[in-house]
């Protein structure tokens, strides 16, 4: 049975940092993973990003929202030699007020003669007091899933910013009381979606926090099945000697990279089938 390999990666675009430059190893890491579908979040269209688009375009049909010229956006890419009908792909939009929308990009294509919606999303954060922030995140999430649930066959991948995961719902505080892992899984399930369940964490690799780590990068699928175990892949940190020096101290400990221009989320890798 034919499968599609998916990659989602928050590459930590820094639109508020002067002279932000996209790390050159991002293309090499993606090429090594060799996915059929690419979802990049926190993609910022700085001059160095144009080179990544050109390099990806050799083997992928690349999609961006032309209306977004500054700040975070989503990059989607479909491999040209895959079974996806990339030539006939068109944009898919959400219908809602601007304030209820996450960072979003969607396309409609065909796979094995079925219409397939592929979306990338990033739930926006901050700018409000904690409880309002949590409620705002959940409003964005519901807007997204209320829209895409109308379609039969859907892949949506992204950074859903769902706070630190707690096993006991009573342990959530502040904004996390209103928006957390259990809430998004339950709401997506109501809409007919299944969430990816990789082991480990997707953010916080160099954070020293009593809260632990965060797993907020996910794939949700509808009308499809996960074909293997999903993986949070951190191997890009040891892609070569240069990346290893960027991420690790001489004593082998991880550097604090969250405030730099380096990707600070794991790649999320998965395969799906009809």
> Could you say which structural class the secondary elements and strand pairing correspond to?
alpha+beta
Q: Which percent band covers the strand fraction?
A: 25-35%
Helix content: 10-25%
What string, H for helix and E for strand, traces the elements in order?
EHEHEEEEEHEHEEEEHE
SS field, number of helical segments: 5
Overall CATH class? Alpha Beta
Fourth CATH level, the homologous superfamily: Endonuclease/exonuclease/phosphatase
- What is CATH's topology name? Deoxyribonuclease I, Chain A
The description of the largest β-sheet is: 7 strands, mixed
Cα-to-Cα separation, first versus last residue: 8 Å
| Radius of gyration, taken over Cα atoms and rounded to an integer in Å | 18 Å
Count the domains.
1
CATH architecture: 4-Layer Sandwich
Average pLDDT confidence is: 90
Annotation keywords:
274 residues; alpha+beta; Deoxyribonuclease I, Chain A; 7-stranded mixed beta sheet; 6-stranded mixed beta sheet; 13 strands
What would you say this structure looks like, in words?
The protein contains five helices and 13 strands. By secondary structure, it is of the alpha+beta class. It has one domain: Deoxyribonuclease I, Chain A. The mean pLDDT is 90.
In short:
The chain is α+β, with helices and mostly antiparallel strands.
Write the layout of secondary structure elements.
Blueprint: E1 4-10, H1 25-33, E2 37-43, H2 47-57, E3 60-63, E4 73-79, E5 90-92, E6 103-111, E7 114-122, H3 130-148, E8 154-159, H4 181-190, E9 194-195, E10 217-222, E11 225-226, E12 231-233, H5 241-247, E13 267-273
Parallel strand pairs: 1-2, 7-8
Antiparallel strand pairs: 1-13, 2-4, 3-4, 5-6, 6-7, 8-10, 9-10, 11-13, 12-13
């Amino acid at each position: 049975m034919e499968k599609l390999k998916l990659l989602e990666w928050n590459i930590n675009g820094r639109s508020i940092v002067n002279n932000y430059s996209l790390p050159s190893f991002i293309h090499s890491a993606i090429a090594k993973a060799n996915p059929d579908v690419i979802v990049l979040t926190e993609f910022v269209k700085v001059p160095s990003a144009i080179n990544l688009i050109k390099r990806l375009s050799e083997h992928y049909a690349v999609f961006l929202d032309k209306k977004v010229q500054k700040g975070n956006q989503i990059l989607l890419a479909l491999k040209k030699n895959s079974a996806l009908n990339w030539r006939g792909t068109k944009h898919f939009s959400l219908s809602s007020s601007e304030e209820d929308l996450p960072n979003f990009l969607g396309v409609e294509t065909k796979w094995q003669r079925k219409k397939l919606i592929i979306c990338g999303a990033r739930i926006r954060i901050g700018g409000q007091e904690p409880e309002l922030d949590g409620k705002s995140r959940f409003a964005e999430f519901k807007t997204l899933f209320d829209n895409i649930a109308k379609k039969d066959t859907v892949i949506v991948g992204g950074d859903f910013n769902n706070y630190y995961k707690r096993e006991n719902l009573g342990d959530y505080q502040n904004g996390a009381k209103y928006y957390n892992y259990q809430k998004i899984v339950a709401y997506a399930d109501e809409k007919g979606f299944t969430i990816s369940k990789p082991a480990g964490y997707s953010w916080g690799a160099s954070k020293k926090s009593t809260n632990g780590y965060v797993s907020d990068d996910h794939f949700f699928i509808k009308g499809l099945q996960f074909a293997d175990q999903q993986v949070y892949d951190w191997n890009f940190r040891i892609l070569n000697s240069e990346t290893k020096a960027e991420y690790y101290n001489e004593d082998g400990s991880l550097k604090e990279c969250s405030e730099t221009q380096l990707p600070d989320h794991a790649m999320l890798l998965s395969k799906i089938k009809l």
